[in-house]
Amino acid sequence: MITRRFLLCCAALLLAMSNIHKPASATGGFAPTGSADDRDEMLRRMDERAEHFGELSRRIWEFAEVGYKEKQSSELLRSELRAAGFQIQENVAGIPTAFVATYGQGKPVIGILGEFDALPGLSQEAGVTEKRARAANAPGHGCGHNLFGAASAFAAITVKNHLVEKKIAGTIRFYGTPAEEGGAGKVYMARANAFDDCDVILAWHPGDANSASLKSSLANISAKFRFHGQAAHAAGAPDKGRSSLDAVMLTAHAIDLMREHVPSTTRIHYIVTNGGAAPNVVPDYSEIYVYARHPSMPTLDGIWARIIKCAEAGALATGTKMELELVASVYNELPNEPLAKLIDGNLRRVGGVKYSAEEQGFAEKLRQTFPLDGALPLGSQEQIQQMEGGVSSGSTDVGDVSWIVPTTEFRTATYVPGTPGHSWQAVACTGHTIGRKGLVVAAKTLALSAVDLMRDPKLIAAAREDFNKRRAGHDYRSRIPINQKPPLNYRDKQ
Amino acid sequence: MITRRFLLCCAALLLAMSNIHKPASATGGFAPTGSADDRDEMLRRMDERAEHFGELSRRIWEFAEVGYKEKQSSELLRSELRAAGFQIQENVAGIPTAFVATYGQGKPVIGILGEFDALPGLSQEAGVTEKRARAANAPGHGCGHNLFGAASAFAAITVKNHLVEKKIAGTIRFYGTPAEEGGAGKVYMARANAFDDCDVILAWHPGDANSASLKSSLANISAKFRFHGQAAHAAGAPDKGRSSLDAVMLTAHAIDLMREHVPSTTRIHYIVTNGGAAPNVVPDYSEIYVYARHPSMPTLDGIWARIIKCAEAGALATGTKMELELVASVYNELPNEPLAKLIDGNLRRVGGVKYSAEEQGFAEKLRQTFPLDGALPLGSQEQIQQMEGGVSSGSTDVGDVSWIVPTTEFRTATYVPGTPGHSWQAVACTGHTIGRKGLVVAAKTLALSAVDLMRDPKLIAAAREDFNKRRAGHDYRSRIPINQKPPLNYRDKQ
Amino acid sequence: MITRRFLLCCAALLLAMSNIHKPASATGGFAPTGSADDRDEMLRRMDERAEHFGELSRRIWEFAEVGYKEKQSSELLRSELRAAGFQIQENVAGIPTAFVATYGQGKPVIGILGEFDALPGLSQEAGVTEKRARAANAPGHGCGHNLFGAASAFAAITVKNHLVEKKIAGTIRFYGTPAEEGGAGKVYMARANAFDDCDVILAWHPGDANSASLKSSLANISAKFRFHGQAAHAAGAPDKGRSSLDAVMLTAHAIDLMREHVPSTTRIHYIVTNGGAAPNVVPDYSEIYVYARHPSMPTLDGIWARIIKCAEAGALATGTKMELELVASVYNELPNEPLAKLIDGNLRRVGGVKYSAEEQGFAEKLRQTFPLDGALPLGSQEQIQQMEGGVSSGSTDVGDVSWIVPTTEFRTATYVPGTPGHSWQAVACTGHTIGRKGLVVAAKTLALSAVDLMRDPKLIAAAREDFNKRRAGHDYRSRIPINQKPPLNYRDKQ
Amino acid sequence: MITRRFLLCCAALLLAMSNIHKPASATGGFAPTGSADDRDEMLRRMDERAEHFGELSRRIWEFAEVGYKEKQSSELLRSELRAAGFQIQENVAGIPTAFVATYGQGKPVIGILGEFDALPGLSQEAGVTEKRARAANAPGHGCGHNLFGAASAFAAITVKNHLVEKKIAGTIRFYGTPAEEGGAGKVYMARANAFDDCDVILAWHPGDANSASLKSSLANISAKFRFHGQAAHAAGAPDKGRSSLDAVMLTAHAIDLMREHVPSTTRIHYIVTNGGAAPNVVPDYSEIYVYARHPSMPTLDGIWARIIKCAEAGALATGTKMELELVASVYNELPNEPLAKLIDGNLRRVGGVKYSAEEQGFAEKLRQTFPLDGALPLGSQEQIQQMEGGVSSGSTDVGDVSWIVPTTEFRTATYVPGTPGHSWQAVACTGHTIGRKGLVVAAKTLALSAVDLMRDPKLIAAAREDFNKRRAGHDYRSRIPINQKPPLNYRDKQ
Hints:
Four copies of one chain form a homotetramer.
Chain A: H1 2-9, H2 24-28, H3 36-63, H4 71-83, E1 87-89, E2 99-105, E3 109-114, H5 145-166, E4 170-176, H6 185-191, E5 200-207, E6 219-228, H7 244-258, E7 267-274, E8 285-294, H8 297-318, E9 321-330, H9 337-350, H10 357-366, H11 398-402, E10 407-413, H12 424-430, H13 433-455, H14 457-471
Parallel strand pairs in A: 3-4, 3-5, 5-10
Antiparallel strand pairs in A: 1-2, 2-4, 6-8, 6-9, 7-8
Helix pairs in contact in A: 3-4, 3-5, 3-13, 4-5, 5-13, 7-8, 9-13, 9-14, 13-14
């Protein structure tokens, strides 16, 4: 997930630095309805369970399962939540690794998102400062979703215990959401109405700093364009062949010509996922995998329609047939100001991450392995950065959720400051004690915020009002065709 | 016209050299019905008129008028033929410079083709051995059509005189055919049925050697693909623009990808005739001019249909509109063996070109200005080369005539051996005495052959039989749309 | 010049509308040292000469001479200034139409820029509301430089009279700067040190609204990349040819691929200015004309270096030779806040443009011929818009001047609100009374501001201070090679 | 291997049909020195071993091991030859699956080539008439090399027995040559001097007809061009990335542009073997795999040098680095007329393939699954086709051997007439009894011819003379760099 990587990198945009730990009441203006003691006690007890959830995150880190293949990771979280008394709805939206864990009943319904998919090819030893795969070409948790899932489950269970103990009415949910990395799992869960009855959704993401967020993200549509030609011996009868690869080449060229004629905030990128089987055969099957992004979904629709025409033209000119598989489509994220302020306050209450001497040494060495332009300084992991607005340059399927339910997302410093996302360095952190410390900050912030929302209906009303205002005049309608099933095998090699 | 240039250049294909002057009767087996005296006398009288027609060719050389713009050249030939007693049909096929000059009546009808268009940008002084334009960027007779028209008129008038003198029945025709170089004038004349009642058509072409021919040529279709986009300021609002130049780029790329998937004997070539008006404006109008050729018109049809799809794809991918103007389409030439043998015999009777000492010096110096790989040696202009078969790599609108009437075409040495066609060196020859000597060889061969055909119906019957055999199973149908007018302004700059 | 067209169009960015005519002293804080009477009198006298300079602008409009070919236009302005007592330095920087007209002596030296070149292909009748060329394909004043030159000369002469009358010391200059539209005339004049001793430069530009400006513009480098290949008959011996057009195609493709990998604020655009001579000849000469722009010259340098590599690659891959002619290079414009405030104040003193009933009717009809999205409403021509910052998407050779001398530029409403720049509609206005009214607003504002600067050294000091601050750390060094002569024939067709 | 597939397909070139079984002495003029009885007896004994070698071919068919990975196949052949008394030289040229099996001593040395590699993705059940993989995506023997290896071993062992029995002096060799399909195994064996002391090399190839051959093949150079760029997040910082895929795109475009400018007999084809890892990352590693072919190696050198420039240009324009791995280079095959005549005679002595009723039924049904244009009729497998000359459109590493030692190659009808090479239909035949019958024809023809050569030094002398004549003026020098090791992993997926 890119959003947070960007929050990390774009130091030029960060006001940063000046944050002083203030009491939550001062920043957000929301008066917690429980006594301070209640919440301090809750945080204290979380410290006791931190080791357990740290271990849990490590096991998911070791599973390192890619999108829609997270069988062990999903099962581990399910069994943890089941043991804590949650009701588990499995196989949500026909996805074996998607689930919803629910405790309690009635309003309000507060959902916490949890992700757990790994990234292909990023296998890496933890806690070392050089690139060293645990298993060649195997996946790795370069986006920290092992921490994401574990911290969110940690928070959900904590909230449940608090509700029970304090006899507070309402429902707490944990959403086990697979395949965030390109698989758009939440979009299919949304289509199955999994989020519809929530009042608020809380999410976070691993990062290299701690902050609440008012940022939006890029809407994204991605698809595989497949071309079917006519094979022929490339030396003996090339005139009998119709090359599917020619169609890919032409489609790509058309897209590259189009770059001049789309708004500057557009992003289009592609790879060739199948470029022919053997040089001596005119390729009869080739594939190009294209992403297009823009801050606004309606604008993206127009751009996407033109990309489809590029591919149709590729087929037309080369005498081949084009077949389109829409892989994913996610909305831009709608920020929510009241929720972001709530998070900001609780983050400041919880505080940042403190390194041990050994962790400090690791961090210093790791920072020598990537460029530090614009990176926050070492030590910044102890602080809470100011909220930022604008549009991040990434995309996430949290975007779709945010168009259905008031949603907020924040980050904690699970990586050494400056660490690029989707890097071996990130994997080295997310399997390390540094990652677990960030996990605890996240879990505590989530738990505090959920409890605040449970206790204060005005918070929820304010979040809903902001949500209605931002969404005004726009429907949510996923661009994924209604009859399209989740691409459960999108990570398989062609 | 490329056909002959190729006969010149492709020495590898020439058996050459071994030709011995044999009496015509020995080679073709056709016994001329006139007495030897008759014909010797005719040739002798032609020598007396040679200076006059040489001067006439020089005037056309100086006019140097490009296709469909040959007003002075056409008028000069018309007045010469009118003065000789020919009936002139003007404005044939709606072309101001096309005409048919007819003398006599009844069968047989023997036609002689005459061309007179120049080539853009080839202006050159005559008789000099360095590149030196008479007028910068002006046209020049790099294909020797000034000689072509003058020699053919010379022959037609000679035949007319012979018919009158010898009281021979039949009709002699001179076809004033404009715009051979890309304008396909004869195709429009054919559509106006100008050749339908001929029994035989004789044609020749300037070259660097003397020979009859059994070669075919390449069928050719050419068109301008025009793209209409949406202009916009290229810095201020490029996303508002739809670039017609993008469409050209993509169409060209598609065509280049197609090269692998057409038969090896195909030729496709293009230029960009309009690539935008100003860099700071997204081009809303661009044009690409494409030729496609193949030895067989039906095969070319399939290739051409694919090229159109390339251009449609160019428009589709770029959001522009495509407009197609078919510029020309000519058939491959059907050779005719009895006619080629008749020409071969008469060429050998007439003999080649003898240089004066001064001409020899000019030729030696000129040959230092071009590569001589595969060129015939100096001196070969005195000989008659053997007939060749195969397919030349050029195209000519004589091709269309050859599908309607039994037609033959030969070449004489109007250029120094080895001279490339369409070169300044060719222009330097066609305005020079060397060119005029080749003109006389051509005129004599045409006159002898026409007279032979007038006198011997069996020759005509044999030519017809060969024609029927070669054309069997195929219709002639020009690919130029029936409602398309001659592109009288195709040489105008955009 | 695009800057102002953009100011007009980007209404979304305009706060606009709320401007109230306030006394100059209130807005800028600069107290004019002359008495109010002085200046009112000066403005009144200008009204008397308005007709004369309007006529002068109309004559230049009719000359409609393109860049570096503005012989009559330049001569007309020179003779007017000469008659008014200015000393004329002609043939500045070796450019026949560039001149500097000077009156007075000593400090301060205040320069006023005047442009007068027309745009190719924009010929149009004045005052009509449909596209109707005066002469087919002829140039037209689509950027209003006829008004630019005339108003600036009007102002310079007015200032000279004022200096004489009021016995004020100092030097007033008029710069006759040719070929703004792509020819970068001012860059060559700058190289010849023509601006070095000025204290302040004032400039304006025709537009569809009245406003001072704090905008920057895009630095721009443009060049013609010429490829030299090997000609060959495209049907007969294509393997012997090396296509210069192939090199163009490849270079263009490389540039289009590069678009993804440059900052979003970059603009690159090209046209194909020579795409081959004839389809049946492998092109041995082709040309692509490329512009690249970016808000920062050092960043643009890096992009430009990569574009050159694209062209080198085009040559390398195709076996051709690449030759680079740098056509122009202009800097981004440095705004100047004290000068912009001075202009803003004086503009508000002068006031906007009032239409007669007939002009109102014309304006209403004209506005039906272009899209009005984001356009200012009719009536806005009477107001003064607020100053804007940011970066316009155009480029101008005023940019180079602004790196040498503190410079400001403003616009007046010479076009009907909403009129696109470089359009027939703009030409219809710049030859019409509406254009002349905008001319008078510009001339008065220039004259007032020059007189203010003459009288108040603090204004000049403040302008210098702002200039030094903005330029800090950067040298001015034109990217045009020191030995390159002005491209006096850049508008000639290839 | 394509050569024979082409022999099969190009029926237009086949005179065919008229072949009558004539005694060998009549066709070739070579009088066998053994008595007819000797050789009849040898053939009769071969019938007794046919089942055994058929089974052996089936086991290799089931192994279906791709180039350089033929461990079991190679070991099976080695053990068979070892058991028959041959000396085995293993690991020839550093290739684990390459070996030379030798029996006897002294001159003459007659070599027989044996191949055994399978083709990726062609897994197919034997003897069925529909496409049905034995194992999805697994390799299959679509070129019949299982038969090739087994028949050649069968022949070698037969010859050895004959030498022993008849006490004939000389050496018989079996060459176990891996990775013909793109790996060029023989080229590395040649470099290790494995063929240098042979007098004659005999080879055959599975096909759909029986015939000796005078054909040449295409010289071939192939390489993987690898581009190394700079990864970056494709949405977040595309300007920081340098795309290796862009380099591939541009290189491909350059090659496609080049197609117009190479001789028509050239063949260039490519696939994209690595087109990026994920769409949201600017690819830092991409690969294009290119073949180029031409009938003449020196001409191919020039073309290849230009292809390298295309790839260099791809890197230059995109700011990436290019790395070239030459995968293979094989020479065009030198035919040998005396050897071809010897084969032709012995093929006619052996006779073709007779189908059982069941095989006939299979053949009839199979022929309904592919186009029959130009295919030989069913029944033609019983005949011996006339030898053909010309140039096949395929390439083979037998070509390199043929430049070192006089070599001939023939085909037998192991596929149903008309079966395309490299097809599932071919696999269905090569694992079927039909394939085994063709195996026997090949083994007998090889054995007869080797024995003839052993007995008649004049045959060897005539072969050598023809060889010297055809090779005159040309050296053999492999284009594979001397320090390049065999690409033992060329079949591994990237």
